[in-house]
Each structure stands twice: as structure tokens, then as C-alpha cells.
Amino acid sequence: MAGDIANRVMLFVIGRCKPDKPVLELSIEGDALIVEETDKVYRKEKGLKKGIAFPTSLSVNHCACNYNPSPDSDKGIILKDGDVVKIDLGVHVDGYIATIAHTIVVGATEDNKVTGRKADVILAAYYTSEILQRLIKPGGQNFNITEKITSCASEFNTLAIEGIISHDMEQNRMLGEKRIIQNPGEALRKEYKKCNFVENEVYNVDVLFTTGEGKLRQLEMKPTIYRRTESAYKLKLQTARTFTNEVTAKFGYMPFTMRAIEDLKSARMGVTECVNHQVMEPYDIMFDKEGEFIAQFKYTVLLRPCGNYKITGVPFDPSLFQSEFLIKNQELAGLLSQSMVKKNKKRKSTPSRDL
Fold first, then answer.
1. How large is the angle between the packed helices 116-135 and 330-337, nearest 10 degrees?
2. What are the tens digits of pLDDT across the range 168-184?
3. What ranges in the chain are assigned the alpha helix state H?
4. pTM higher than the cut 0.85
């Protein structure tokens, strides 16, 4: 259910990505549609939480992630023809989370195909996401997948962005314990724990590639997306306590946009103490070098004995992209050619009805 809503909202936002369209407007429209659609389900069940699991973000060109502008501090980016736009959002129903991200190029058509480095990085990320769907399955192992991600990126002369994490998800818990880290740096390698995939686990699979150096940086833009942590630190400022109480009541531990807070001015005064004491975790707006391009594909997948069930994901047409590169690695090409359609087998029901 959450996956169906996420897919519908993604298609809506994609359809609205036109030249001269403000990113702020698209973010607001996407979030509003998530709320509208989730309000329609389980209306008779009082107290059941549902809504936004990740605010609608549109990160353009060399901006990698988490760009969700605030109307009173940032008028935002205006889309133009040729922009590479990464749309990222999440939905939950009763705490069951469905995430999705998709990359488009504004104005791309059969008569106006995407070429050059834009096409390289988008095709690399897309094909890698497809290959991962075939590798993340019961009995598989995370270290092997990290190696495949690096190999896929090199096929198109691109780089996997350092430290991007795919992970398992549970009810009311976005970030699980099992991790797949693409291009782990030295520090992450020391902390990277081997894990195996198990039937009925749910994974957030996130692929983020760049034509640049693979290491992101923060610029002057302040984060607008945060998440409540499980820290029990006793906040001193009244503004921080009021802000935290509102967040907990409205969003629980799901990521939220500051735009959704009633008293934004007061919240901005309180959020600093919250972040300093790890009560809130910011989602920093990250960039590669200007002039580079970044592509992202993300989906939610349920691991089942009869084959993976991809809960989120919208159609992508590779014919709109023309790259000088191909997947020549025989192992990767073989994985990509594998069909994902499997015969259904009788199985016990799982607690995933709201995905």
C-alpha cells in the first residue's frame, strides 16, 4: 500500500518537472499528495500513523541529495531544460516504509535524447540498481555486492559516491542494522560488518553515482530535513523542548521537513541544541563539484523465497539515453540478463500488508 502510493506520487512529480518550475513548488506538491493519499487509507483505525516517511526532495545536477527548500529562507532552484533531477521521497502506513528515488533529465524525449556524461552516469546508476535487485536475495552477502557496485560504475567511467548506504528496514525504523555500503572510505571499512540476507527482510536499496570525484561536500546551504533520534538527552532550551515534542507527536522517528513545523522561527532556535546533543539528526544537502552530474535510483524490495518483490520503482526508458559505454563485464551482463519473473509458490503470509 505504501509502495503504491510512493509510486503514484513519484509519477506525479516527474510529470510536473518542466522548465521554469520551482523546486520548492514541486516539493510542496509532492508532500501534499503523500498526505492526501495516505489520508484515504485506514480512515476508521484511530491512532494509526501514516504519511511522509521522507520529504519530497529534488536535487539538481551536481547536488546529490536532500534538497528540500524552505520558503522563508530559500526561494530555491528553478528547473531548466537539460537539468539532471533526482527525485527522492518516502511513504509509510502504520510504520511500514516504502522509499523511492528516480532520476530524470528535464526535456528529454525521443527527439531530444540525453548524451555525454549525463547519459553515462544515469545509465550506470540505473543498470547497477537493476543488478542489485538480482543480488540482494536470501543467502546473499553484503561484501560481495559492494564489489559489484564499484565494477558497475567503472563500466561507464563513473564513480560510486563514497559512503552511500543501502540497509534493511523494519516497522517504524528507517535504518536497520544490516548495511550495504557503496565505495566505503577507510573509516567506514573499519566499521563495515559482514551480513547475510534473510527471507522476508525489507531493504532500502540506494544507488548514487557521479561523474566527479566520488566524495561529496557541504556548501553554505543549511539542512531542512531532520530525523528524531532515540536519544534521551534532557534539553535545556524551551524552544528545543517544544520543537522536539511537536516532532515526536507528528512524525515519530520518521524524517521530516522543517517546512512542516508550525512555528518555524522558534524551531530554528531550538534545532541547534537538538543537533548538538544528537536528539535530532540532520540530512545535510551534499554536492559534488559544479559542472559534474549525479544520478540516483532507489527502491524498496522485500526478500521472498519465490523471488524478490520490488515494492517501489517507476518505468525507466534506457532508449532516451545514448552513451559511448556498455556493460562489457560478462558477469555483470549475465546478471542483468536474468529475468526477475518467477512462478509464485505457496507461502505463509508475512506482516507486510502495508508496504
1. 70
2. 999 999 999 999 999 99
3. 2-16, 23-39, 116-135, 142-155, 186-191, 238-251, 264-276, 330-337
4. yes
